[in-house]
Write a structure and sequence with these properties.
Blueprint lengths: L7 H4 L12 H24 L10 H4 L3 E8 L6 E8 L16 E5 L9 H12 L7 H17 L4 E6 L1 H14 L6 E5 L14 H27 L7 H4 L6 E4 L8 H14 L3 H7 L4 H8 L13 E6 L6 H5 L11 E6 L3
Parallel strand pairs: 3-4, 4-5, 5-6, 6-7
Antiparallel strand pairs: 1-2, 2-3, 7-8
Organism: Salix viminalis
InterPro entries: AB_hydrolase_fold, Fungal_lipase-type
Protein name: ALPHA/BETA-HYDROLASES SUPERFAMILY PROTEIN
Length: 344
């Protein structure tokens, strides 16, 4: 039985008959739809929907994209990503087209269906263990991004991903940013591995826990970095990334990504009470990565980023599935809060 969420004619952003590429809502909606297109590509493969029965093509063709290439996992042969090329008809050319991408590289989230669930859950676990960068799927993704950028240039390429796919896009974006290439990125419900402090209702308790966590993390980081700096002097990779500003879309009702809200807001609060230096050290480290470093397995925390345009969906959600779903991000009636955070 076909899920309504898979059918573009039933759940896609049909209101976007003309895309204004200067409009933030339009850009977000198109990026989310292209990510959904990857998900439905894999579902089409799993249930053998082909030709006129395939449900995936409308998710990109509606916006005048063509499927340039599928990205396939070498372990289970599932489709985890896609490279789309923008090919608008002449009748759709206007001034806003200059703001459009030439290519969008999109990555889907976890699919809990036979044919992909085992591999996807393994990768979800690798995010928790901060080892996603060691997986062959991410190697394939990063190489695909490098190839496209080398062909068409960084200003013509967007990254997009949801959940597991957002973590993949984040890793690819960070990898490119370290070489001075800053790609526009749309990260939907990207996982933030941390204690769920954001779910605490009492603001004083929440703030107190964050301060305590920052002091402990900064203390461990100072001790660890002091020992390692005795043997080598290196450039701070966190500061190097600060010029890259991805669009980070989170929902406070989604425990997988909600911690990004407190992560960024806490920086300003620490500055306000005069201990911003502690937070600047804590914000680029996690307790997990510091413990791994202490055990001889140095590990840069994937989910920590210096700068972002944080967009929070404040529209009430009925349950976790709605708060975590990709489909929320093309709704025309969203109540959102947006703030730019620059690491200095």
């Amino acid at each position: 039985m076909v899920s309504e969420r898979e059918d573009f004619s039933l759940s896609g952003p049909l209101h976007l008959t003309i895309v204004d590429w200067k409009n933030a809502h339009h850009r977000r909606s198109v990026a989310a739809s292209l990510v959904q297109g990857v998900r439905i590509l894999e579902r089409d493969r799993q249930v053998n929907r082909r030709g006129s029965q395939a449900l995936a093509p409308p998710w990109w063709e509606f916006f005048h994209f063509q499927l340039h290439r599928q990205l396939v996992d070498d372990v289970d042969s599932s489709i985890f990503g896609a490279i789309y090329e923008f090919k608008p008809p002449e009748s759709h050319y206007d001034n806003s087209v200059d703001e459009s991408p030439c290519y969008v590289i999109a990555f889907r989230g976890t699919i809990t269906k036979p044919g992909s669930v085992q591999r996807d859950l393994e990768l979800d676990m690798s995010i928790i263990r901060n080892r996603l960068h060691e997986t062959s799927r991410c190697e394939t993704a990063i190489q695909a991004v490098r190839n496209v950028v080398a062909t068409v240039g960084e200003s013509n390429v967007w990254l997009a991903g949801h959940s597991l796919g957002a973590a993949t896009a984040l890793l690819a974006g960070k990898t490119m940013a370290k070489t001075g290439i800053f790609l526009q990125a749309f990260l939907f419900n990207s996982p933030f591995i941390s204690a769920p402090i954001e779910r605490i209702k009492d603001k004083r308790v929440k703030h107190g826990l964050r301060i305590a966590s920052s002091v402990i993390t900064a203390g461990l980081a100072f001790t660890t970095k002091k020992k390692s700096s005795q043997n080598s002097r290196s450039v701070d990779p966190f500061a190097t990334l600060s010029a890259w500003i991805p669009f980070l879309f989170v929902n406070p009702g989604d425990p997988f990504c909600a911690e990004y809200i407190g992560y960024f807001e806490h920086r300003k609060k620490m500055d306000d009470i005069g201990i911003g230096a502690i937070e600047r050290l804590a914000t680029k480290n996690s307790l997990g990565s510091l413990l791994m470093t202490a055990m001889g397995r140095e590990s840069e925390p994937l989910h920590l980023i210096p700068s972002a345009n944080l967009i929070v969906n404040l529209t009430p959600c009925q349950d976790f599935r709605e708060a975590h779903g990709i489909y929320q991000w093309w709704r025309p009636d969203l109540h959102m809060k947006s703030k730019l955070y620059n690491y200095r």
